[in-house]
């Protein structure tokens, strides 16, 4: 189940650009499907052939009707404002959501049928071990840059192992959809010429730039970079020279470039006299394409490359620089399917710019450039830099169309040389600088956009109807209201953990995989402890959970970032996983006593889906505020906890 869920999140997002902005859409559909699968147990004995058939249909639909950026549309990508080709979001997103639910409902129904055959916690234990195996397998494939045809082949083999029937008709219902999935994904791999990084589907094509042949790079169907010679770039686009013109200190002994990509910005730095360049790029495939750059910057002995997260590098390096440059570091993708965090979100906060200032040499400068589409974005970033550096930065809007702008600040005012037009400051209505707790640069107002509210409301309505149709009357789940709320709280804690570790250790796919695995290990540990030892009563464990939530609230991220990395890891694990462990001891004890294992587990999974919807409240209250929402949810679970009748002991 978990391997299939991760593969769906990864593959659909690479072909449907809207999924880069509707963050956990496939995740919500997956949780709904898994919950429905458990609730469906006992209502039929037929094998769920509908699962591979739906997967084959979804793969074919997406390959025939992908949603990509319209390259003939003027302007640049800015959040949800983009011209696209393919089906509109109101059509393709419901198809993906419903298909994900139906696909995951199949294996979930098979898992649910095993639950009554084992003791409650023994069944849950195997389920968790399987989930960890799914994460490990998908992580290994990401490390190897395996294309989706490999993912599809593994799914086909799993379907055959789980659904292989004695009769020919049933075999056809397994083999034919599997062949369609593998064949379609193989065709995509061969015809698109794509490179599959842990973050993107990367494609290239030859293009022309001012009469010079260059390589255009697209990620997930979005124009992203061009491998252009430094001389041509400097001649035709003034923004690339401005960071060097705005610094009073002319010597460039050490330069740091975050978002080095295919190497053009590195080549420019070398042409400007940099004696050494640290080039930081989070995506290994984009860095690999830099070896094909016409200037060959990565082959220069003056360049050291670091395939890692830019914010993590800033926090962990002890080196000082004459110039730190954020070179168009817009990722166009999410950290995971479980949060609204983009790969570059923590680069544009006030704390990130303070970290950059701390790594500058005396007389050094910090600069960033990009295409911002809206002027308030330029002013917001300039105001953020002003707050971090303590003085007004230089702001150069090179072109009004697309708001091509360069923002530069010296470590002191004397270290920068601004142009004739001084920045007048942020006008009224400019959003405040983004903090690490709410790193949503592109969200102008402190609100949940109406499109999200409408979408999530429709998801909840569809889910209610689906539960009624598939599982029957809601009364079946009424005794398990506390388990439902435990699922809500669990996903909120998981989201807080993912985003917190992304800040502390980087938004790389490795960190993300470790955190997801760590959450499941904490859950498995809670199950094993509950199985083997007599744990305190549930009210006591709820008290431990409350203490864990309070600890997580009281420990600030700034304090954790100030610790050495090994000590930071120990402290972060203790703070993040204590409430998760306590919550899952509560769940394990409660689940062990439930008279209906499949219905109670299904209710918990549906609660997790609702928790995924509540995650969007982080846009309002920040990620730290999710702890308050989780505390309220867990309080509700405690109130709904079935009371043991006097003189009748609870089952152990």
TrEMBL record:
Keyword Transmembrane helix: yes
GO terms, biological process: polyamine biosynthetic process
SUPFAM superfamilies reported for this sequence: S-adenosyl-L-methionine-dependent methyltransferases
InterPro entries according to UniProt: SAM-dependent_MTases_sf
Ranges annotated as spanning the membrane: 20-42, 49-69, 89-111, 123-143, 172-196, 451-471, 509-527, 539-561, 567-587, 599-619, 625-644
Keyword vocabulary terms for this entry: Membrane, Polyamine biosynthesis, Transmembrane, Transmembrane helix
PANTHER family for this protein: THERMOSPERMINE SYNTHASE ACAULIS5 (PTHR43317)
Protein name: Spermidine synthase
């Amino acid at each position: 189940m978990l391997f299939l869920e991760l593969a769906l999140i990864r593959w659909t997002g690479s072909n449907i650009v809207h999924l880069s902005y509707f963050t956990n859409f496939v995740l919500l559909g997956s949780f709904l499907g898994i919950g429905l699968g458990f609730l469906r147990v006992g209502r039929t004995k037929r094998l769920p052939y509908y699962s591979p058939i739906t997967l084959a249909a979804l793969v074919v639909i997406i390959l025939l009707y992908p949603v990509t950026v319209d390259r003939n549309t003027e302007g640049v990508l800015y959040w949800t404002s983009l011209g696209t080709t393919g089906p509109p979001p109101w059509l393709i997103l419901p198809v993906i959501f419903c298909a994900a639910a139906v696909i995951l409902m199949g294996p979930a129904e098979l898992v649910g049928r095993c639950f009554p055959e084992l003791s409650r916690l023994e069944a849950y234990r195997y389920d968790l071990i399987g989930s960890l195996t799914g994460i490990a397998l998908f992580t290994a494939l990401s490390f190897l840059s395996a294309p989706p045809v490999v993912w599809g082949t593994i799914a086909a083999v799993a379907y055959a192992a789980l659904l292989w029937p004695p009769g020919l008709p049933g075999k056809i219902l397994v083999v034919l959809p599997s062949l369609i999935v593998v064949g379609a994904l193989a065709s995509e791999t061969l015809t698109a010429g794509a490179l599959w990084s842990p973050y993107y589907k990367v494609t290239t094509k030859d293009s022309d730039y001012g009469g010079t042949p260059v390589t255009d790079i697209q990620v997930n169907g979005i124009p992203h970079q061009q491998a252009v010679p430094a001389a041509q770039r400097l001649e035709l686009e003034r923004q690339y020279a401005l960071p060097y013109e705005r610094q009073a200190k002319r010597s460039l002994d050490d330069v740091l470039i975050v978002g080095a990509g295919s190497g053009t910005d590195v080549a420019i730095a070398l042409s400007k006299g940099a004696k050494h360049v640290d080039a930081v790029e989070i995506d290994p495939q984009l860095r690999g394409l830099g070896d094909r750059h016409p200037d060959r910057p990565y082959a220069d002995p003056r360049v050291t490359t670091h395939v890692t997260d830019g914010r993590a590098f800033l926090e962990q390096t002890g080196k000082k620089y004459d110039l730190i440059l954020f070179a168009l570091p817009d990722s166009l993708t999410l950290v995971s399917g479980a949060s609204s965090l983009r790969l570059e979100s923590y680069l544009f906060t006030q704390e990130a710019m303070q970290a950059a200032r701390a790594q500058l040499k005396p007389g050094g400068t910090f600069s960033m450039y990009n295409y911002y589409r809206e002027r308030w974005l330029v002013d917001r970033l300039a105001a953020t830099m002003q707050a971090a550096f303590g003085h007004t930065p230089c702001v150069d809007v090179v072109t009004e169309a697309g708001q091509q702008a360069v923002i530069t600040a010296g470590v002191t005012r004397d270290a920068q040389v601004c142009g004739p037009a001084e920045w007048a400051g942020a006008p009224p209505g400019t959003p405040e600088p983004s903090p690490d707790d709410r790193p949503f640069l592109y969200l102008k107002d402190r609100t949940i956009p109406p499109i999200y509210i409408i979408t999530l409301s429709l998801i909840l309505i569809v889910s209610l109807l689906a539960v009624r149709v598939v599982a029957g009357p809601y009364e079946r789940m009424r005794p398990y209201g506390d388990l439902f709320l435990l699922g809500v709280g669990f996903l909120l804690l998981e989201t807080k953990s993912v985003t917190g570790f992304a800040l502390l250790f980087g938004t790389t796919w490795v960190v993300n995989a470790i955190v997801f695995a760590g959450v499941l290990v904490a859950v498995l540990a809670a199950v094993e402890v509950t199985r083997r030892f007599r744990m305190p009563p549930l009210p006591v464990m709820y008290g431990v959970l409350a203490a864990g939530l309070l600890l997580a609230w009281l420990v600030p991220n700034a304090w954790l970032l100030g610790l050495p990395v090994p000590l930071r890891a120990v402290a972060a694990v203790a703070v993040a996983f204590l409430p998760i462990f306590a919550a899952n001891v509560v769940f394990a004890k409660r689940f062990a006593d439930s008279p209906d294992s499949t219905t109670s587990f299904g209710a918990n999974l549906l609660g997790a889906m609702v928790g995924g919807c509540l995650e969007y409240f982080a846009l309002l209250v920040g990620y730290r505020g999710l702890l308050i929402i989780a505390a309220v949810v867990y309080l509700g679970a405690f109130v709904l906890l079935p009371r043991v009748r006097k003189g009748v002991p609870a089952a152990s």
